[in-house]
Amino acid sequence: MKYVLVTGGVVSGLGKGVTASSIGLLLKACGLRVTAIKIDPYLNTDAGTMSPIEHGEVYVLDDGGEVDLDLGNYERFMDVKLTRDNNITTGKIYQSVIDKERRGDYLGKTVQVVPHITDAIQDWIERVAHIPVDGKEGPADVCVIELGGTIGDIESMPFIQALGHFSYRVGANNFCLVHVSLVPVLNVVGEQKTKPTQHSVRGLRSQGLTPQILACRSTMVLDENAKAKLSQFCLLPGENIITLYDVPNIWHIPLLLRDQKAHEAIFKVLNIKGMTQEPNLEEWTCRAESCDLLHEPVRIALVGKYTCLSDSYLSVTKALVHASVSCQKKLTVDWISATNLEDATAKENPDAYKAAWKLLKGADGVLVPGGFGDRGVQGKIIAAKYARENRIPYLGICLGMQIAVIEFARSVLGLKDANSTEFDPNTKSPCVIFMPEGSKTHMGGTMRLGSRRTYFQTKECKSAKLYGCKSFIDERHRHRYEVNPDLVTSLENSGLSFTGKDETGQRMEIVEIPNHPYFIGVQFHPEFKSRPARPSPLFLGFIAAACGKLDAVLQHSSRGVGSDIRAVKTYQNGSATKPHAYWPEHVYGNGNINGNGNGNINGNGFHY
């Protein structure tokens, strides 16, 4: 087993997760089997109870693991399925050691950070790295490990100590350290400054880890003078210093690594050159380049509670990007704080109220994602009502489905006090109720989590057609509340259609309004399984509906080909060719992309 460790220095937020994901993709493109591990030095057992505004989204895996959002990057880039054990936290490590101590496994010894915690970290890494990937027997060839935080953080020290021991444990030719560091450019002098990176490398060495490769984040390509300084003072050959400069979208990062021969530098350190091939990233290149050339816009209003931090909805925005690129549209996400749509805001902050409504009325589609707590719920209900009454494409995810049901009950059934018991425990018309098997005393890991099966009640509905007219699908869940089964008959008699249910038939999974251009709510989170080459069917249908192309997409999806559209090959003159015979020309145009799109998605590009 070979290991590639990715660390970060100088400042946080440099894009270690994207860098680690890109390294994994690049190695996989060279014919290697790759897995990944994320180390988070916080004391939480997992990310499940952490605020999205503080930490970003909670990413959910097939096995129900609530993990760091970087595992979503790994799964999207490398197209692998990971487990909860692929996310290591300080809380998990200490809990495992304390459990052993309570059982008497240490035979009366004094339990200490070194060696017991550090040994537990190494054992965990080695165990998880050898878990089979891609449904094949045997472990991966390479395990990419990302250490969260920044070198010098107090909470990271046990992990750095453990990883230093681990590098000796596995041997020099089995361990490669890639250090991601900042090379800032001071506007006053316009010069790239290498001192921060020099100090970061010195600090890393002082703790027992020696980087073999430097990945330097900068706004521009690293000049030769700066590269020579880093080579001299960090004791690295020039070919092992890579520049990760700002690009139009993050799909270019693996291409930057490939063009600067990062894979060859890694193979030299790991002594595996003979086992590999030249990286095959043709399809990935086509997608990255075509994304830059898109110029016809599609505007999506994302009405949420945590819109102050876009990472709170990272997988949702990535799924929107996957779908919009497949539909050859340039995505613009208008972030709308749900509270700004409410009447109270009209009185307290009329400018914010007017701005929010202007964005909502200018949208081609409305998306209401998941969330917890009653703040902003009324605004989400207002957004769902606006989309329903004005026949605007609507996609509701988790809470977004539940509030669509509440709005329908209030407006159509006439149940003015209809609500969820999450927001009003004493409501006389409980449309959404707490699930019987849920825990009311413990928060962490007690929701309905992970991959669950949904059975379509009819194959004539939009959602079934988008999934290729399958009898059932498996999608990832994360919720404590469900639609009240006692109200289902009344809702359906009034025009709401529950087209997907669980195996018991009592838990509602998908709701649709049949006589609407596109109004779908789902209890699960389809964004977690969306991939660049395989957009989520529901997101693809949503974007297609927002573009006026849904009928053609439904026609092709029902034949099992619509959700696997590949990015087109682009050339310098902006023309394109179709890579697959099944490319639906009348849906996606004639295969030509014209224009000078700048790749700015969500208004500010993919700078990370």
Automatic annotation (TrEMBL):
<dbReference type="GO" id="GO:0044210">
    <property type="term" value="P:'de novo' CTP biosynthetic process"/>
</dbReference>
<feature type="domain" description="Glutamine amidotransferase">
    <location>
        <begin position="309"/>
        <end position="544"/>
    </location>
</feature>
<dbReference type="GO" id="GO:0019856">
    <property type="term" value="P:pyrimidine nucleobase biosynthetic process"/>
</dbReference>
<keyword id="KW-0067">ATP-binding</keyword>
<dbReference type="GO" id="GO:0003883">
    <property type="term" value="F:CTP synthase activity"/>
</dbReference>
<dbReference type="InterPro" id="IPR029062">
    <property type="entry name" value="Class_I_gatase-like"/>
</dbReference>
<feature type="domain" description="CTP synthase N-terminal">
    <location>
        <begin position="2"/>
        <end position="272"/>
    </location>
</feature>
<dbReference type="InterPro" id="IPR033828">
    <property type="entry name" value="GATase1_CTP_Synthase"/>
</dbReference>
<dbReference type="Pfam" id="PF06418">
    <property type="entry name" value="CTP_synth_N"/>
</dbReference>
<keyword id="KW-0436">Ligase</keyword>
<protein>
    <recommendedName>
        <fullName>CTP synthase</fullName>
        <ecNumber>6.3.4.2</ecNumber>
    </recommendedName>
</protein>
<dbReference type="InterPro" id="IPR027417">
    <property type="entry name" value="P-loop_NTPase"/>
</dbReference>
<keyword id="KW-0547">Nucleotide-binding</keyword>
<comment type="pathway">
    <text>Pyrimidine metabolism; CTP biosynthesis via de novo pathway; CTP from UDP: step 2/2.</text>
</comment>
<keyword id="KW-0315">Glutamine amidotransferase</keyword>
<dbReference type="GO" id="GO:0006241">
    <property type="term" value="P:CTP biosynthetic process"/>
</dbReference>
<dbReference type="GO" id="GO:0042802">
    <property type="term" value="F:identical protein binding"/>
</dbReference>
<comment type="function">
    <text>Catalyzes the ATP-dependent amination of UTP to CTP with either L-glutamine or ammonia as the source of nitrogen.</text>
</comment>
<dbReference type="GO" id="GO:0005524">
    <property type="term" value="F:ATP binding"/>
</dbReference>
<dbReference type="InterPro" id="IPR004468">
    <property type="entry name" value="CTP_synthase"/>
</dbReference>
<keyword id="KW-0665">Pyrimidine biosynthesis</keyword>
<dbReference type="Pfam" id="PF00117">
    <property type="entry name" value="GATase"/>
</dbReference>
<dbReference type="InterPro" id="IPR017926">
    <property type="entry name" value="GATASE"/>
</dbReference>
<dbReference type="InterPro" id="IPR017456">
    <property type="entry name" value="CTP_synthase_N"/>
</dbReference>
<comment type="similarity">
    <text>Belongs to the CTP synthase family.</text>
</comment>
